Amino acid sequence: MASVPVLYHAEEGYFSQLARLALAEKGIDYKSHLISLATDEMHEAWFLRTVNPKGMVPAMEHHGKYYTDSSDIMVYVDTLPSDGPKLFPDDSSVMGDRVGHFSDLLGSINVRVVSYGSIFHRHLTVDSQVSPLMTKEKVRARIEGFGKNLAIVQEQNPDLKAGLSGRRGLYDEADTIFDEKRVIAVFEDVDRIFGEVEEELQKRKAEFGDDEYWLCGNTVTVADIHLSCFLHRLTFVGQAQRFYLSKRPLMTDYYNRILQRNSFRVACGDANSRFLKTK
């Protein structure tokens, strides 16, 4: 029996959703190993020594090799035998160049700041699906606790310091998340990027028609994985009205079509509902 990849992931984790959606679009079976973000399981010694010394999810093992970044996972997944779409078209092609551009553009968005900044500054949101019990105090405690736990792990396991020292985690974004003006500046970057995305969707719709267009062509690519997961997160944290419902009809239509895809329902579905759960 051929071995299947083992995916170490957090159900609610944004980057874990990217990896799961890539696997689902390609139709590749995998063994799921859930990691708890609420208990900082990714910082436990077994995970750091065996799976990812940087203490981050997702990570994937296949044939004894570990892939410890969502981008690397998606690239590798695209090389596996599959009847699914080519997520990374040849970068020498027009479509491949387009996919590279929009993947980089969407990948540059600071999703942590958008997510936690929206929850911390709830007055900047509309129709947030985040529980009102998740107060500013709880968000602050979660972020500060992340940094403290990481420091404890390094103190108790000196041999793991090297792997953890270079990573940027949630705690490193705290000053930005707690500063409303800096959060709004990140929102403005998203708005600029989404303006370009909406223009591209208009071109693709004109080229392929109402039901056949995706961001870079008439098939789903890694650029669509980035866009669909981010739209899903924006909707959850109450930013849909700000970024697309009120002014970007093609993006709204795009997201509605994404929600109908079985691959998306399986990979993402209501995963965001577990975001910031404490148990």
From TrEMBL:
Question: Signal sequence span per UniProt?
Answer: none
UniProt domain GST C-terminal: residue ranges: 132-279
InterPro entries, sorted: Glutathione-S-Trfase_C-like, Glutathione-S-Trfase_C_sf, Glutathione_S-Trfase_N, GST_C, Thioredoxin-like_sf
Give the highest taxon in the source lineage.
Eukaryota
Supply the SUPFAM superfamilies for this chain: GST C-terminal domain-like (SSF47616), Thioredoxin-like (SSF52833)
Taking every annotated instance into account, which residue ranges of this chain make up the domain GST N-terminal?
3-85
The family this protein is said to belong to: Belongs to the GST superfamily.
Q: What is this protein called?
A: Uncharacterized protein
What organism does the UniProt record list as the source? Answer: Strongylocentrotus purpuratus
